[in-house]
Amino acid sequence: MATDPYDLITMGRIGVDLYPLQTGVPLARVETFGKFLGGSPANVAVAAARLGRRTALITRTGADPFGAYLHQELRAFGVDDRWVTPVEAYPTPLTFCEIFPPDDFPLYFYRQPKAPDLEIHRHELDLAAVADARVFWMTGTGLSAEPSRSSTLAALAARSGGASRGGASPGEVAPGGVFPGGASPDGTRAAGPTGYAAAPDGRITVFDLDWRPMFWSGADEARPHYAAALRHATVAVGNVDECEIATGEREPCAAARALLDAGVRLAVVKQGPKGVLAMTADGRTADVPPVPVEVVNGLGAGDAFGGALCHGLLAGWEPATAVRYANAAGAIVASRLACSSAMPFPDEVAGLLDGTPAAARAEGGRP
Question: Left, alpha or beta for 280 (phi > 0: left; psi -120 to 50: alpha)?
Answer without folding.
Answer: beta
